[in-house]
Structures are given as C-alpha cells and as structure tokens.
Fold this protein.
Amino acid sequence: MDKQYLFGELSENELTLQDLEDLISRAQEMSLQDVAIREILDILDRAGRMWRNPNYHGRRTAVEMMPSVVGFSAQMIERGLEELARLLDRSELQRILRYDLGRSARLDSWVWRKGYNGYIRAVPLGVLTHVTPSNGFLGSADSLVQGLLTKNINLVKVSHGDPLFPLLFARSLKEADSEKRLHHRFSVITLPEESSEHEAILRRRSDGIVIRGGGETVRAWSTNLGDGVKVIPYGPRFSFSLITAGYLENHELSSLNYEGLVQDVVSWETRAGSSSQLLFWPQKKLELLPEFCQNLAEKFEHWNELLPSPERDFEVKVDLREEFELTRFLALQDKAQIYHAPDLAWSIHVRRWEDHRGSPLNRTLIVVPFPDLAVLIDWLNPIRRRLQSVGLAGLPRDFRSVGLALTDLGVHRITEWGEMWRPNHGSPHDGTFQLRELVRWAVIESLPRRFDAERSLQPIPPSKTRKLKNLLDIARGRSAYYARVLPDLEISGARDLQKLPRLDSETLRQNTPPAGEDLLTGPLEGAYIFASGGSTGAPKFSFFSLDEWEEITDILAAIYQKAGVTRGDTVANLFMAGNLWTSFLAASEALEKLGCIKLPIAGNVDADSILGYLQLFHPTVLLGLPSLLVRLAELAEEKKVSLQVRTILYGGEAMSREARLYLQDVLGASTVASAGYASVDAGPVGYQTLDLPVGHHHLLYDYQFLEFLDPETGRPVKDGEIGEITVTCLRRRLMPLIRYRTGDLGRWVDSSAWVFELKGRIGDRIRIGSADLYPADVARTLDQLDGVGHIFQLVISKDGLKDHLQIRVERSSRGAMVSADKVKETLLVGLPELEEAFREGWLGGLEVDLLAQGTLERVTRTGKIKAVIDLRG
Amino acid sequence: MGRSFGSLTLSMKSMGLARRVWERYRGATDSLLGLRRGLHITGRREAAFLRAMQEAFAYHFLRNPELQRLCEDTGFYPWHLRRSEQIPEIPYFFSTCLAYHPVRSVPEQEVVLTLRACEQSVGAVGYDRTSLRRLQRIVRHIYGDLEMVDRVRANYLSLHCHGKEPGVGVAAFLDNLLSRLTRINHFSRFGEDLDGRELSHLLERYEASGRPFRLLGSPTQISSALTRVMESRQGRPFRFGPRSYALVTSWWSRFERRPAVREEVSRGLGIPASNVRAFWGTLEHGVPCCECENQKLHVSLYSRVYVRDPISLQMLAPGSEGLLHFVTPFHHSYPAISLLTTKRGRLSEGCRCGRASPVLELLEAGAH
C-alpha cells in the first residue's frame, strides 16, 4: 500500500531521515508563483467535480475503505465527500479567498490598494507542514487546499488515525492537473511509528506548521521550533447548542428545528470541534423538556436510519456504556433522564451541570438545564479557551444579546441549529481567517503612479492552449448549456477552437437569468448583473463575479493610466449611471484604484447641471460619451465658460476628428482618446493608444481570444479581411463566453502585434445598390472635411426599383461653411464602392442634407444617434 | 426509547422477602471463606458460592437504597436468585459511578478503612472490620494455594508510593495484606526519591541474612529502583534464591513490557523468573487475581468474573474479549457485590499449573 506521495510520485517506502531532509530541500527550491490563482481554482474545481461523481474510482475506493480506517459509516463518508466537493467548488473557493485575503489577485502580483495608495502583496510562507487531525478525514484535504490557495509548498503529514484519505486526495489532484501545474509541488508523507526525529526536522526546517489536533499534539509540535517558524495551531474545540426561554415562548415545540439539531450531533459522529456535544435548555421551561426529548429521540432514530452509525471499536463502546451507566445511576435517583437507542447508537442524557463530566461523543447529546445566561457563562468560563461554535435557537434579539455574551466569553461562531456541522466557507475558523495565517504581507509604500499598467495591458504573451483548455473544462463541467453544445474533444491548440459552436446574443439571453441559468457555472452570490440591448428589443443580462469585476476595473484603470490619468487628477465621470449600465460603475471603480478625486456626476443629468459642477470643481479629466462631451463643449462655448480640461476619454460611440478638434479647442484638452473597446456582454476587448489611428485598438490578449469570422458561414476570414469580431474570454468563469458573436465587425491590422480595427456593427454593413457601405467609412471620410460634425445618419429608401441614400450630417461650428455638394463629392471620392454604384446607376440617388447642430434625433435612453435607418421594407 | 425513573416505592412485602432470604443464608459467606484452597473451584464449592451470594445480595438489598433502585430497575431481587447461573443477573454497580457517588451498607462510623482511587474521587470503598477480616482470609487462601504462605520470617521491601497515586490508602492496605503471608523479620519502605546506594546497602543486608525476601511494588517502581541499585553496585546482581518473591501490582498497565520487567527483576534479585508474580484487582471489587508460576492470573473461589459485550451486555463465551464483570460476596460494608467495570479482558478455562480456576487475561485499560 502506498505510504507517500512525494511531489507527484507514489511510494510504498518508509521515509528515512535523509529522505525527509532531501524532501524539504527540494520543497525549499520550489515556488507556485508561476501558477495564477485562477489556474489553481480550475484544478481544484475539476478535482471537486471528480469527487462529486459517484463513479469516480477515488470516491469508490474511499467509500469502500475509509469506514474501517476512520470509523465512519459508508453513508457518512459519502456525506463527507459531498462536503469535499462543495469545498472544492470554484465559487466557494473564490469566496474563501475573497473573505480571507480581500482579493485573490494579491497572491498573483502586486495589487494597488485603494486608499492606501501603495501596493500590497500576499506572500506565501514557503514550505508549510500540515499536521492533520484524526477525528475527521476532511481536515487533511481542507488544510492542503488552504496551503495551495496561498501558493505555499505543502507537506501534509498524515495522522495515524487516517493514513489513507490524504493520499487518495493527493492522487485526485494529480488526475485533475493534466497540465502539471500543481501536483508535483506538494507532498503527503507518512512518518514511521517512531517519528520524533522526523518531527524535529519538520519543526526545524518548515517555514510554517499548521497543527490540527488535540492539546497534546499542539503542544508537542509547538516546541523546539526553528527560528522564525510560524505555528498555526487549531487545537481541541468544544461546541454546544442553546435554546432560549424567549424562543420557546414564541414557538411551538413541534416547530423547532429538530432535524438541524440532530444533524449537528450525528455528523462526524460528534467528533468534530464544531459538533454539538451539549444542549443548554432554559430551566424556566423545564416542563417542556420531556416532550422535546421525545420528539428529538424520534428524529435521532430517523437520522440513524439515514446515516447509520459505524461499527464502533471497543474503546468507543466502553465510553458509550460508561456514559449511559452514569446517567442511569443518576436517573435512579431522579437526578437525570435518558433517551437512547437499544444499541446506544444515539443517546440523549438530561442531567445537571454538576454531574457533567464530558461527552463520549459518537451521537451523544447531553442536555443541561440552565437557570440564566449569567450562570451559564460562569459554568463555561473554565473552558472558555476551548469554545468554538454555538447553535442557537433564539429570537433575533437573542442572537444579539446572547451572541454578544457568548462571543465575549470565547465562542467564535454562532449559527442556527443545523448549520454547525457544516462551516460556511469563508467564515473565520477558530477566531482567525485561515488563509491570512498562511501568508505574510509585503507592501510598496506611497507611489504616485501605479507601475503595473503596462503589465496589466500587455503581459508576457501567454500560452493560450492551457487557458482555453481550463476554460472549456470549467464550462463543460459546470454549465449545463456548454455541457450540451460543446463537443467532447480535447483541444490541442487555439486552432481547435474553430470546431466549437459560436454563441449568439439570443442564445446568451435565453440561457441566462431571468430566462434560464444554463450558461452560468455557479450561484449568483457576490456578483454584478448588467444589462444591454434594451433599447431595440429584450435586454440581455451579463453576470460578473466580484473577482471578475475587479479584473475588469483593474484593466480599465490601467487603460486610464496609460492615457495619462493619474493620482491627484479630478475626474468627472459623465458616463450614463444606473439602469444596470456598466460604464459609470466601471469607470468609478477604476478611478478609485488610481487614487483620483472623483466627480460622479453621470451623463444622464441635464447639461446645465453638469456644466455647473464642472465649473465648481474644475476637473482635469472628463469621461463620457462623445455626443455628450460635444454638447457640453457647445454649452460651455455658448455660455463663455472656460473649463481647461487636460484629458478627455470617451467610450460608447466613435468620435470624429472634427469632434476631437472641437473638444480640444473649446475645452482645452491636450489629449482626447478612446477609453477602449468593450461591450457589456463581452467585457473589455481592446484599448487605444495615442499613436494608433482612429478605430485601431490593441487587443487585451491576456483577457480575450479574438477571431474574425464570416458572419454567415462562421469560418475565419483571411488575415486583414473584415469579419465579425468573435471573442472567447479567457478569464471569466461565472458566465463563460466561448466564441461569442459581438455583432461588431473588424479586421486584423497587424495580428502579430495584436492590433485590430473596428469597422462598426454587422447591421451597419449596408448593401446599397451594388456597394457594401460601412458607417465607419462614412465617418472617416466626413472627418476629412471642415464644417461638418461627426454626427450623421444614413437613411436608405426605395426610389422606384433602385435604392436611394440620404446622408444627414450635422454642421459644425468650426471651420468654413461647407456645401452639400462638397460633402457629396468628398464622399464619392472617399468611398470608391459607393462612387462605382452611383456612377453605374445601381444607386437611384445620393442626397446630402446638412442640418444644424443638435437637430438629429437622439435615442432617448442612451443619448446615442441611430446611425442607419433602412426604409426599404 | 426514553427512560426516566420514578421515586423508589419498595413495599414492606419486598423487604420481608429479602429479610427471609438473608436469614436463611446467614453465615454462608463466612463458610465460603473458610474454604482454604482459594484457587480450587468444584461443584460443591460452587454451591457454597451461590449460598454466599444469596446471603450477600439480601444483606445489601436490605441496607442499601442504591442497590434497591438497581433491583427495581432490572426487576431482579434477592428472592429471585436460586441457581448459580442466575448470579450474573444480580444488578451490577458500574465502577465509574462509584467513583462519583459514595455508597455503603453500614453506618459511617463502622467504616475503619477508606480507599479512594485518587484524591479527587468522591466515591470511596469503605471497609468495616468484617470486610477487612474477610479479605485478609481471601488473600491468604489464594496465596496458600500458590504455595506462597510461609511461617518462616521474611524481609520485606515495599516500593509502593504512600499517599500518592494510584490510590489513597491503597499502598498501606496492600503492604498490610501482602506482608501477612509470612512472619515478618524486617519491613522497610522506600519512596520515589530513594537513594540507590542506601537501598543497595539494605538489600545487601537482606541478602546476607539468608532469609527469604519479598519485594512489593509496581513494575515502574521496581524497575526504577533496581536500575538505581544496579548503578550503585556496578551492575552486580543479588542472589536471593528461589524462596524469595517479587509481588508486582498493576502488571496490566505495563502489559507490553511485561516480559522485559520480569526478566529484569529476576536477573537483578537473583530469583527465578517464575517468582516474579503479578496480582491484579480493582479497588471496588477487592478480590485479587494472582499469577501462578506459569504467569497466569487466576480467578479465585471467592469471586466470579464474567465477560460481557459492552453494548448489549450479553455474556460472552470463554476466549471472547469484553468488559469484565466481577461478583463477590465478601463485602460487608460496601454494596458493590456485583461490579461492571470498564476493564477489557477475556477468560480461559484451565491452566498448566493444574489449579481448578479460570484464567483471566487482561488486554488493556478501558476508559478508566
């Protein structure tokens, strides 16, 4: 039988002292810094799905062999494995990371800390030894998972009580880690019977020791440590249940949560630190106790059938007999009552505190009447350092007052009945956030600017294959939609992505809430919901976990910084706010990360008010839609207000050269740049730099995988040809987007440099006469003319049998007056296909209407111009 | 499923029935203890044991309310005990309960010796003069059958820690019981802080006297003392010879080291290994099980040992492991004539030594 799992290799050999020294030396040379937390989560999640599968060979082995090893029934083992799968669930792990460390990214790199205005990083302790407990088999897995989540190099020392499960778990991680990222960087070791010298080596050379076990174990491992070795002890704990008189006054006995209480007792055979050993019952309600115990006894019997008690060893049987006899002896003198199964599979002992001498555990509940809270506190005072959880049946006010008194005493955790046995992942354990104990914190203090913008936007080009593999695995394993549509094939490169189906926006809508949930991979706990597309049809909703949202706003912050926004800037956020829109919120978060002074005005406030705020606070940077920014500039010009803005960042619409020049002229902005190419569904895709022409973007290649596909056939177009932008988001997990059709058109400008050009919406490609016309091309051509603005509209109608094109253009206040003929001439020169169609008579008519500024009709909800109106029917 | 217990309502009739049983068998216990071969159980002696138990059961029932409640709970009363096979049905006291709850069947002033498992014990075993006298006879009869009772004067060395664990008053009690097996020439007692050289000198005097020597103590105490003595003598062993013995208590707690300690004592004192004899008993039961020359612990004529399943309490066949249940009629002041313990062991029939008494094998400590 295997005894060791040494950095990926199983071995049956004893571990000699030299072996252990060598093992630690190897461990000290290792690091998990090259593995992103996202990858670790993917691997653990995959392992969790394996354990959830009843046919997984590791699970079958555990169910078959563990009962005789750890003294739990097969059913309890099954229950434990379900709990393990829950622990390994990606969203649960993310929650733990978030609650313990604030942000998982802190383990991957330096993270700018808002408010502190410096960088912070969680650094693994190094080589971590885990001394695992023998009272429950999940403890070892739990401890190892925490070590992996914090990127430590872990050595798990198995307990003599359970030498099997840690090895089974290690093997499952190896199986889940086909890319060899994790499994060769931890070990599970079995020390020989006489192991004091081995233990001395571990105590001396580890960087940290996590000790889970009884008081003796904790004491033994906490002595004779090497210099600076951190000890993280989780010693013996004691938990109990409590019901208040107030609760009994307001609730019928029949309505009490007996099931929950029984589960808190029977789970883990009452051996876990969080198992309820005692129930304190108010003496004022003693008359209700016999009926309560009778009801409870029935539930014990019921649960004993659902989760049969295991075959117990002699010592346990003796303990149970002894406790039974003690209570029976008291009962003979009218000082106690006892309710029990004939075979003592469970028992309820009602007795006085002075007669209480501990519990034999193993489904024993001792009920102790208490006169009042003060007395109860006195009773518990001598054991206050061992207190852990309390399952409380109380009124809301009891949770406040009793909870306060008990936590003051030493209790760490208060739950409702039925919640004690299963800790809420992410909550503190024994008074500490466990992951925080496994890292140390490093900082870079008080930098005026973030230094990681470049790295965020253009990191070292990654291996896409591994990221795509992980993404597909998560999507296939956790999303019902992808499980249905993704073929069962292993991808060996990005090219294989072409074998997968595309995802269109309607399918997205149908498979995400409220219409459906199939596309999601986890529960919507800690998530943002955003909407898009509501102005023209049923809105689509997009879902981002909080961590995913953090990533997006990190990227945005980097884009802003690259555009010159920095700490100390006063920034007016003029994006549209509310209404499930992303832009305002995302910009706000990003600005906070840069340490800017924020003016959260929003674009859906009337222009006069906005101008008023801008006059009051003199922002150095404006963020907003081009149309709104132009309107503000016009208003400022009209009112002769000087704003002197340094930088303008826009998004949501294209901006013409004319508009850019106008804003520079009126608002004094030296920089007018795009805030990036993004959509609500797809998230950020690209960003602009000042050196790129209008419409050209750098791809966020570490975030999105981009394809340009023929909208009809779905086949990739040739490099440089225009196709539909189809994105696969490499990082999002809650709502994975695999080959999502954005509806935007674009082409590679330089695929080797990750530069692409946006060409507008698919619907914007107008087949008119014999020509393909893109509004983006019209805008670019109009940009060359002085005297016209960037705002225009194409109206297409029928003139007899032929198409008729009317181009409505708003005049500009800048430059010389231009005639409609001049505009028409310029368009025909700039758009050869249009000129050919017009010249050869395919186009019935081409008409240019020059309109006064602000007269083109805007969409009420978004403030945008509808660029194409097709009246051909 | 649920059990609670009402107040005791024994009728006058019950008490009358019990009194009749007691009067009928009165004197049977002392008759049993008059049988000298303590490890020789025959059919006739079995009947004598039954009669003694009938007397003891009725006697304590009439005097002890806790036993009355146990009888009421189980529905087994003194007048129900008619056959030897029914002896195991006598309601038992559980050993741990007795550590927390004092019980006795005589007025407090009649108790002349109180033994406690430890300082913290609330419960205690109280001996009146009758009980003490009876136990002394029992011990003498058992060791008589083991041919260790001698009229010759012997030198005694006790290493029992007086006033310390494992029991309060137990050390002196044991010394008193065991030193009555011979006449005493000299009795000395050394504690934990003994001086190896001083003890060495004492043992040299004992050796030089040519008298039999008896060493009393636990394996740990004896081993530790011998080590120090041997250090002071540069490892030179004594030669006490085959008439000397080491009587070792608590043998079972060092179960895994038994052969090593036996060899160490035998070699150090110069006595046959078969003369290193363990004896074992529980404080509450009182009657010791003593090793024969084949190192087998024998159950005596004055007690019975049953092996029970810890959960169902069913009696198990010889050879099976279980909880040990002891029965004895000798207690006069203490009602635990039937005692269920947390000790684990098994019984086997017969021994190569030829003595007609069951052999008890202690396996390991239970919860206490």
Observations:
- The CA atoms of residues 226 and 335 of chain B lie 40 Å apart.
- Chain B touches chain A through 27 residues (CB under 8 Å).
- Residues 1-7 of chain B have pLDDT under 50 and may be disordered.
